[in-house]
Write a structure and sequence with these properties.
45% of the residues lie in helices and 14% in strands. The protein is an alpha/beta fold. The chain is elongated and about 65 Å long. The two termini are 33 Å apart. The mean pLDDT is 92.
Length: 296
């Protein structure tokens, strides 16, 4: 509460000095975001939140605070409407940070990144996108064991931005696997250079699908998928650690399963990220301008 009050006061200073017509946020659910929305509302300033992540039954998104939302997809819009959010406050714009992926083939070089990371260009590149969850250790260990059973593959552990890499490096050393552990790297460049993404339920799965990569999701808790990556047929779900090596083989070399997965991914990507056309930022800007005109 102390942080929220302090942030509220700081935001008031900003608004008094700048006198904005609207405030645009990456989120409205952190203390920082909630304070901005509350302070703006008190000053009669409209707030617009540009979505991050994917909604659905994610506890982080059970309550929203901003006046308006620029949403990544039609599915996210349906979710917020189901939670009672007024449809007039919502606009599906697509995700601005995905705009440059429309030109991924021109922007990224697999060969260059392979060389920079010291990888073997002749081997398949598997990326494990980690998440700071209770089951993270089991996910990493299972992936290391599976990779150790296979030939012609190499593993890169992409550490979540809010994590340190101590655990990752320790587990790699214990497993005796020649895997790379990276953190400060362009995720999309890494995914572009990869042949397969493995994760638990990270939104990196959607980003991999945008780049036409096969995806494996690990669900060792036997719980329901938070986001239906596998339920939609767009990814292979593995619920038992001992089945991961087989799933990796299918994702990399089983032509029939790959074809089916890519076919499902096309629909999933559109439903969950709208258009990858390089114009999401413009649609967000147009939405903001519309709100400002409406409230002037």
């Amino acid at each position: 509460l102390t942080h929220e009050v302090k942030n509220f006061a700081e935001w008031k200073k900003v608004f008094d000095a700048e006198k904005p017509a609207a405030v645009v946020l990456m989120d409205d659910i952190t203390v920082f975001g909630r304070s901005a929305v509350a302070s703006a509302r008190k000053e009669g300033i409209k707030s617009v939140s540009v979505q991050w992540g994917i909604f659905r039954e994610n506890p982080a998104f059970f309550k929203t605070y901003a006046d308006y939302w620029a949403l990544t997809s039609t599915e996210d819009k349906k979710y917020l409407i189901s939670k009672g959010i007024d449809v007039k406050k919502l606009a599906v714009t697509g995700q601005p940070r995905f705009d440059y992926l429309a030109d991924a083939e021109k922007l990224f070089s697999r060969k260059k990144l392979i060389e920079e990371l010291g990888l073997d260009e002749s081997k398949k590149v598997i990326v494990l996108a980690t998440q700071p969850t209770r089951g993270e250790k089991e996910v990493i260990e299972a992936t290391l064991r599976a990779v150790k059973q296979l030939s012609g593959v190499q593993l890169v552990l992409k550490v979540h931005p809010i994590e340190e890499d101590f655990l990752h490096k320790k587990l790699v050393a214990q497993a005796g696997v020649d895997a790379k552990v990276v953190k400060n790297i362009n995720l999309h460049e890494l995914l572009h250079a990869s042949d397969l993404l493995i994760t638990a339920f990270s939104t990196t799965a959607l980003e991999a699908m945008i780049l036409r990569k096969p995806v494996i999701t690990l669900n060792f808790t036997a719980g329901k998928e938070i986001i239906p990556f596998a339920g939609s047929g767009s990814a292979i779900e593995v619920r038992a650690p001992g089945r991961l090596a087989e799933a990796i083989g299918d994702a990399l070399w089983n032509a029939g399963k790959r074809k089916k997965m890519f076919s499902k991914q096309k629909k999933f990507v559109y439903e969950n990220s709208f258009k990858i056309d390089g114009k999401a930022a413009k649609r967000v800007a147009d939405f903001i301008e519309k709100i400002m005109k409406k409230n002037n």
